[in-house]
Write a structure and sequence with these properties.
The chain is α/β, with parallel strands linked by helices. The chain folds into 2 domains: 110 residues; 98 residues, no CATH class. It has 9 helices and 4 strands; from the N terminus they run H-E-H-E-E-E-H-H-H-H-H-H-H. Strand 3 and strand 4 form a beta hairpin. Helix 2 runs parallel beside helix 3 and helix 3 crosses helix 4. The longest helix has 25 residues. The chain is globular and about 50 Å long. The mean pLDDT is 93.
Length: 217
């Protein structure tokens, strides 16, 4: 099949609302390429819509310019273009493609193993997405997987909650932090779990994205 026909297939799945009216074609091209490459890498043939829209500064973490959310059939990406630290070149080159790879990983897992129901499943789910971003070198600015203090102590602590049914509080405690749990600990610990597994088994990414959490941990 001709490349232009293939690209048009993915282009039709990208929806841009609001941001940078004079940059829409550049955003569209970047998102289309990222979706195509990620779909090929994960061997995911099912189409998924991506909506990219401008958002308020308070709706995105202060250390980031972009946030993503995935469901079984779509990806939602929020961007804050008017933050003083926002750099359009970095957004196009690193942040947008990295976020699409991260979120498509969630979509693939939702379509294969299902949505996370326990804390362990959520840790591994996020860990796989973060591992993909890191190992592919899509974005060097990934503060949510930076090394944190007392990681061994934290992994021993989080084990106690592995089998608990996922709730808003349980998720927020481990992924957004508390007085005793560092911010983004869940992302870092999930990443380390996945990294350890892949280093031991040399698992291809297209296999990794469809594996059950209990088989990875």
């Amino acid at each position: 099949m001709r490349l232009d026909i293939v690209m048009d297939k993915y282009k039709k799945l990208i929806h841009i609302i609001g941001p940078h009216e004079n940059k829409r074609e550049e955003i569209l091209s970047c998102a289309t390429n990222a979706l195509r490459h990620a779909s090929i890498l994960f061997k995911f043939e099912k189409g998924v819509d991506i909506v990219i829209f401008d958002s308020e500064e308070w709706d995105i973490h202060p250390k980031l310019h972009i946030s993503g959310h995935a469901r079984i059939y779509y990806i939602e990406i929020k961007v804050c273009h008017y933050k003083k630290s926002f750099n359009f070149e970095n957004f196009i080159k690193y942040e947008l493609p990295s976020t699409i790879f991260h979120e498509l990983s969630h979509v693939v897992r939702a379509n294969t193993v299902g949505y996370p129901e326990t804390l362990l499943e959520e840790l591994v789910d996020e860990g796989i997405s973060c591992y993909i971003e890191k190992t592919l070198g899509l974005n060097n600015n990934l503060p949510y997987i930076d090394k944190i203090n007392d990681e061994e102590k934290l992994i021993n602590e989080v084990r106690k909650f592995f089998d608990l049914k996922l709730s808003t509080k349980l998720h927020n405690d481990w992924f957004y932090g508390t007085a005793s749990i560092p911010e983004w600990a869940g992302y870092r610990l999930g990443y380390k779990i996945v990294e350890s597994f892949v280093n031991k088994h040399n698992t291809p990414l297209d296999i990794l994205v469809g594996m059950k959490a209990k088989d990875i941990y």
